[in-house]
Write a structure and sequence with these properties.
Radius of gyration: 13 Å
Number of strands: 11
Low-confidence stretches: none
Helix content: under 10%
Mean pLDDT: 96
Structural class: mainly beta
Order of helices and strands: EEEEEEEEEEE
Shape: globular
Largest sheet: 7 strands, mixed
Number of helices: 0
Length: about 120
């Protein structure tokens, strides 16, 4: 059984940092493309950052230069380091995973495996 468990969300002020973690069980992280999505009420879930199984990264324009996606294969854990947070980053953040088409592909829009979500709130 595949399970993704996020942690690290919270309430911070603008300009501060947070690191989200996503521990994956039931799957080997190195064989999957993984990603972070975020969603605000009434809006679709948006892709924030993707990490291919081969190590390529992709970022949404809104977070480039501020967010960093990474992984610890020994711990089977995915991370999202978020710096210089802005109020518009406020959302529920979800980690996701899927078996990739190839080692360099970005995650699809509907990966099969999802975490439960963690709330990030940035005050102005």
């Amino acid at each position: 059984q595949v399970q993704l468990v996020e942690s690290g969300g919270g309430l911070v002020q603008g300009g501060e940092s947070l690191r989200l973690s996503c521990t994956i069980s039931g799957r080997t992280l190195s064989r999957h493309v993984t990603a972070w999505f975020r969603q605000t009420p009434g809006k679709e879930r948006d892709l924030v950052a993707s990490l291919s199984s081969g190590g390529n990264t992709w970022y949404a324009d809104s977070v480039k230069g501020r967010f960093t996606i990474s992984r610890d294969l020994a711990k089977n854990t995915l991370y999202l380091q978020m710096n210089s947070l802005k109020p518009e980053d406020t959302a529920v953040y979800y980690c996701a995973a899927e078996v990739p088409v190839n080692r360099w592909s970005k995650i699809s829009s509907q990966p099969p495996y999802w975490g439960q979500g963690t709330q990030v709130t940035v005050s102005s």
